[in-house]
Every structure is written in structure tokens, then in C-alpha cells.
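Hi P.,

Sorry for the delay on this. The queue was packed all week, but I finally got your sequence through. Input first:
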Amino acid sequence: MPKMKSRRSAVKRFKVTGTGKVRRRQSCGKHLATCKTTKRKRQLRKELPVHETDAARVRKMIAS
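Then the structure:
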């Protein structure tokens, strides 16, 4: 049997923390940044946990 491959796009977008939570980046952080306030850009830098309804699906995609 061939090895199971992880989805490379998901591996680049998500990380699993030490406690097992899946983290993701926020959208709207890069494009057209000049019209956004400094506070908004600073808050968009933080990573957030993936919603629990999607976490199992994401874990399945990044499992190799």
C-alpha cells in the first residue's frame, strides 16, 4: 500500500499546538493594508484556534 499523503496546502496554513488545538491565521491581514488602522493590523497578526466543528477535518488533512 502507498503511504498516506498530507494535503500540502493545509500543512502550510495550519499548526497544531502542544495541547492539540489547531491554529490558523486571520484573513484580511496582508492585502490593502494602508487603509487599515494600526490597531486592526496588529490584532490581525494573532493566530486563532480553528472552530471545533472544523478542527477534526483539518487534523485529518494535515495528518501524514
